[in-house]
Design a protein that fits this description.
- The protein is α/β, with parallel strands linked by helices and 445 residues long.
- Helices cover 51% and strands 7% of the residues.
- The protein contains 20 helices and 6 strands.
- The chain has a 6-stranded mixed beta sheet with strand order 1-6-5-2-3-4, sandwiched between helices.
- The chain is globular, with a radius of gyration of 22 Å.
- The termini are far apart.
Length: 445
Amino acid sequence: MRKERIHELNNRTYLPGRYVLYRMQASVRITNNQALFHAIRLANELNLPLKVVFRLDASFPEANYRHFEFLIQGLKDFASGVSLLGCEFEIRTGTLEEAFLEPLSNAACVVTDKGYLRIQRDWSGWLGEHAPCKVIEVEDNLIVPVESASHKGEWAARTLRPKITDKLPYFTSELEDEIPVLTCRREASPELSALNERILTSTLEKLRSDAWLIPVAMKGGEQEANRLLDVFVKDKLASYDNDRNDPSLVATSRLSAYLHFGFISPVEIWKAVEKYPESAPFIEQLVVRRELAHNYIWFTKNYDSYNSLPEWSRKSLELHEPDKRPFVYDLNLLEEAATHDASWNAAMREMIQTGFMENTMRMYWGKKLIEWSATPQEAYHRMSYLNNRYFLDGRDANSFTGIGWCFGLHDRPWQERPVFGMVRYMNEAGLYRKYNMNAYIGKWS
């Protein structure tokens, strides 16, 4: 594994502990989990068993029953697989102190996977500060590590693309597919497995009463992610470039939520598609656009704030704030999908019912929220709220960046017009001109 993927979070040493601890948070999978592989190799070097701990934080900001049901399906998937490796797997709850002080006190060293959101960075920082032993962070949820791709926030895909593509061969050639064999194996503990199951059940019961939102048909976990990847490669990849923007077709991979929860590695997806000559448009989305989103949240402190938007777009939107809006809807009507716009209503229903929306409709959906809100600041707040509440992949680098794009992020000024100023505009007539919108609307009527 390339040294650029490995980061030491403190300057402490290995201790004579009882096990190597893998704090799993962002990579809930076994296949191509380089943090898990590194932890196994360290455990073998130290002749120690491996303990895997996942902290289930039911208070995660803006997450609800829908998101946790999907996550918990993935945790159950992981639990059934990791026991075959001879690792002890424990789910813990409570604050960081309550969850980790006891496991840390018995660890020889700690390995953790890397998250990019502010809250995930805070968690890793706490771990590095409070662990009495060495803490190693492994970056395996981007193909090119974020600071290897660029040392600054990039203006647009065109400025990041050459930096990414130049480094792809280097960072895709060294990762192991084969899971290392753990030498100090532990048999699965029925008591611990039962405790994990009780924690998962009680968490969902609490969320059902405190943060209920209808679950979706999509099933979480590594196995389902791999199945969707197989379907995409066999049935959709060849026509992806022609069909991907048409919301009436099911032409995309549907893997965004699985990437968000760490159920599948982007490297795994890349390896499955890169040998096909028609894969270039998909790789552009998987690598360049996705890593541009992570570049944005990594180098932008307030990435989830209206004030993080480009200065030119904020000035232009605010200059046109007094413009008359053709329609202004309150939030309740928006959540009820009760606007005058049949295309937008269909997109909102798709989001509510499935936790997913095709990218063309996400852009249109967001642009209309700008048009139908009293101020651009209100539009940004509404977009963030609806995005994070309903989408399975809400609260993700791609989501925060997608919201920003609707307001001009990673885009250029366009011809000035009412309400939008110089921010790019979209209209319903354009959808009908390009796509089979009657089929899409009928599907979600």
